[in-house]
Design a protein that fits this description.
By secondary structure, the chain is of the alpha/beta class. It has 7 helices and 7 strands. 37% of the residues lie in helices and 19% in strands. The strands form 2 sheets. Strands 2-1-3-6-7 form a 5-stranded parallel β-sheet, sandwiched between helices. Strand 4 and strand 5 form a beta hairpin. The protein starts with a strand and ends with a helix.
Length: 198
């Protein structure tokens, strides 16, 4: 399976980087083709410009500034997002990638009668997220785990009809032990190849 791995963290020596590296190595070792998108290394601009907003509904113009990212997304059969959860959501750079690249004609289509969106990323059959939170699990649950809901409920309708999703999170990062972090790395390494091969 060709998997687009999107990583969103500014520090190359972070635990998030270790998660990304472990995930990529495990996927490649099991025969998957990985296309890695490091949003910070790319210096991806998350801000939607005024012109991009004007062109948003023009299916030819709306990809003018994002064509390479659109081609990556269209080529993918699987999608893996690796990111820290900040303020109970995606980092700004990842939110910007979703808002600027997942445009009409790419990720979805709009109906003239205002009905449900038309799925546009039909090649993607598996979607997973690997994330960490500073808060304990019960607090993340109490606020509704917004990022998880966005991916598993909101964005899921854009993928193939029976696309499967997987959410892997390590909560309470600010107080976790090195042993717990090592166990989570092993879980990521063990779980993702099976999920994307299923």
């Amino acid at each position: 399976m060709r998997i687009l791995v999107v990583w969103a963290h500014p520090l190359a020596d972070s635990y998030s980087a270790a998660l990304k590296d472990r995930a990529v190595a495990a996927l490649e070792a099991t025969g998957h083709e990985v296309d890695l998108l490091d949003l910070y290394a790319e210096e991806f601009d998350p801000a939607l410009s005024a012109q991009e907003r004007i062109d948003y509904h023009d299916l030819e113009l709306n990809i003018a500034n994002i064509r390479p990212y659109v081609e990556q997304l269209r080529a993918a059969e699987g999608l893996l997002l690796v990111f820290p959860t900040w303020s109970f959501g995606f980092p700004a750079i990842l939110t910007g990638w979703l808002q600027r690249v997942w445009v009409p004609g790419v990720a979805f289509g709009l109906r003239e009668d205002g009905g449900p969106i038309i799925p546009g990323i039909l090649g993607i059959r598996r979607v997973a997220a690997v994330t960490t939170t500073g808060s304990p699990w019960w607090y993340v649950k109490a606020v509704g785990n917004p990022a998880r809901k966005v991916l598993k409920r909101g964005h899921r309708v854009m993928f193939a009809k029976r696309a499967r999703t997987k959410w892997l999170d390590l909560n309470n990062m600010n107080k976790d032990s090195p042993r717990k972090r090592a166990r989570f790395l092993a879980k990521v390494e063990r779980t993702l190849p099976k999920f994307f091969s299923g």
